[in-house]
Design goal:
With 115 residues, the chain is α+β, with helices and mostly antiparallel strands. 19% of the residues lie in helices and 32% in strands. The protein is built from two helices and seven strands, in the order E-E-H-E-E-E-E-H-E. It starts with 5 loop residues before the first strand and ends with a strand. The mean pLDDT is 95. InterPro entries: Amino_acid_metab_prot_put, Lp2179-like_sf. This is Cysteine desulfurase.
Length: 115
């Protein structure tokens, strides 16, 4: 999967773009880790019940040049993509996703637009 300046998730009402104000230290301050190739990665488990260990894995990767990103929501194993936006069954997970992404928007890691 290639890095893109604009990232979208299927059925998500928002589009996220890598902010031109993004800084490497801001990524580290927001618990992004550095991979062996120099990219910045953030993994979070979206859970209905906190600390249950049951949920879907959100993974955000920003390239080392800070010009592109990838985003995936998968099952816990990380092998199968999951769409949490297609039904209201995952409303709690959607809210947790929006909360996390809004915090990254506030810190100028991403810019947010309505589709």
């Amino acid at each position: 999967m290639a890095f893109h300046q604009t990232i979208e998730l299927k059925d998500c009402p928002f589009i996220y773009k890598v902010s031109p104000q993004i800084k490497k230290f801001t990524l580290r301050d927001n618990t992004f880790s550095t991979s062996t190739v120099g990219n910045y990665e953030l993994s979070r488990l979206l859970e209905k019940v906190p600390n249950s260990g049951e949920g879907f894995l959100l993974k955000i990767i920003i390239n080392k040049d800070l010009t592109g990103a990838k985003i995936n929501i998968t099952d816990k194993s990380g092998l199968r993509l999951v769409n949490i936006f297609k039904s209201d069954e995952h409303k709690i997970l959607q809210d947790k996703f929006y909360f996390l992404m809004d915090s990254l928007v506030e810190r100028h890691i991403f810019d947010k637009e309505i589709r």
